[in-house]
Amino acid sequence: VAGETFVALADGNALQAYIEDQARGIGRRLDVRIRMKTFEGVCIMVGHGIGVGIVPRTIARQHRRSTHTIAVPLADAWAQRRLCACFAEWPQLSPAMRSL
């Protein structure tokens, strides 16, 4: 998708910075038509045909139901994110958090 016109997230967004770093890693620069502050804003602009966007799967699924957009999961290794929970003290966590 690096050759497409993008609806991107606003500057300063960690996900957008990561996506742009990945593009630079393959020698490309994203053609950003507009930057939005929220994932929902990205989806709305994509739905209006402004360009393509990269958003979390859950957001794409929500908007796919209400608009005529198509969500295609990214299969490349860079698109698979590992998230971690950070905490200060294990003993003070609730049982639910410990089981997570």
Strand order of the largest sheet: 1-2
Shape: globular
Largest sheet: 2 strands, parallel
Radius of gyration: 16 Å
**What is the number of strand segments?**
2
Spans where pLDDT lies below 50 across 5 or more residues: none
What separation lies between the terminal Cα atoms?
35 Å
Helix content: 25-40%
Output the structural class: alpha+beta
Please report the number of helical segments: 4
How confident is the prediction overall: mean pLDDT? 88
Description:
The protein is α+β, with helices and mostly antiparallel strands and 100 residues long. Helices cover 36% and strands 11% of the residues. The chain contains four helices and two strands, in the order βαβααα. It has helices at 14-25, 39-47, 57-66, 95-99, and strands at residues 5-9, 31-36. A two-stranded parallel sheet has the order 1-2. α1 (14-25) links the parallel β1 (5-9) and β2. The chain is globular and about 50 Å long. The chain starts with a strand and ends with a helix. The mean pLDDT is 88.
Task: Give a quick set of tags describing it.
two-stranded parallel ribbon; about 100 residues; alpha+beta; 4 helices; single chain
Note the topology:
Elements: E1 5-9, H1 14-25, E2 31-36, H2 39-47, H3 57-66, H4 95-99
Parallel strand pairs: 1-2
Would you summarize the structure shown here?
The protein is of the alpha+beta class.
